[in-house]
Structures are given as structure tokens and as C-alpha cells.
Amino acid sequence: MFETRSLGRGQVLSRLARNARVRASLDAEDACLLARFAELSPPNRDGIRVADGAAEEIAIETQVSPRVALAKLLQAQEMVNRLPATLAALEAGDIDADRTATMTKQTAVLSDDQAQWVEQRVLERGPRAEGRSSVLSSPPT
After folding, report:
1. Ordered mean pLDDT values, 10 residues apiece, the chain (141 residues)
2. Distance (Å) of CA 117 to CA 77, 106, 114, 129, 137
């Protein structure tokens, strides 16, 4: 159990902010590790993005369901390969894992150029900006 009784309001907020930055940095490292694992587990048949069993291996090691592990693997590949500024913002603690998940989901159907355009616009607006605003309705074609 963590000792928190002696902390004042400012100290609590400071530690929460620090923990959020550390958590975001670890999430960025996990994304890089998952993307690397996906590289090391190439698809062994058509129609899939990672080898059969890769998600299950991740699931066992990280104590999540295979479905969650596969989603994390695919999101990590998208972020590392298509959204490097999002990954950098996550590593710096400027955004959190929820925001990166939104970014990868909202840009998945876009071309690489369009995805990077949206990424730049959303990240320019700062950590609290919502990704689904008019920014997403007008990427270049």
C-alpha cells in the first residue's frame, strides 16, 4: 500500500501528473515492443497481419485476452509505422494511450499522407483537442 495520508493536495496532483507521464512513456515503449514482436511474427497465410499464435503469446505474457492482445498489436503497428508523431507525443507524456487509440482508429481508413495530415493537425491543437472534430472531415485527397 502506498502512503498517501501525509500528502497535501498539490503533492497528490503532482504525483498523479508524474504517474500519467510515466504511464504514457511506458505505453509508448510497449507500442514499440509490440510492433517489433509483430515484425518478428510475420503472417504465415494470406489475410492476416501477424503470425497465427502471436496475439496468444502476447496475451499470456501480459495477462489480457487474445482479442485485446491482437488489438494492441495492430494498433502498435499503425502507430509505429504510420503515426510517428503520435508515438513521440505519447512517449513525451503529452497525450495518453486513449488519445493514441482514438488517433489510430480515426486514421486507419486514410492514406498514409492523409493520416499524417490529420495527425499533425490534431497534435498541433494540444493534448486536450478532440480528434473527431472538423479536422477529420477535411484531410487532403
Report:
1. 94 96 97 97 92 96 97 96 96 94 94 95 77 54 63
2. 18, 12, 5, 15, 12
Q: What is the model's pTM?
A: 0.85
What is the Cα Rg of the chain in Å? Answer: 17
Among 69, 132, 80, 141, residue whose Cα is nearest residue 103: 132
For residues 80 and 35, the answer to whether their CB atoms sit within 8 Å is yes
d(CA 136, CA 79) in angstroms, rounded, equals 17
CB 100 within 8 A of CB 86: yes
> Residues 72, 26: contact at Cβ < 8 Å?
no
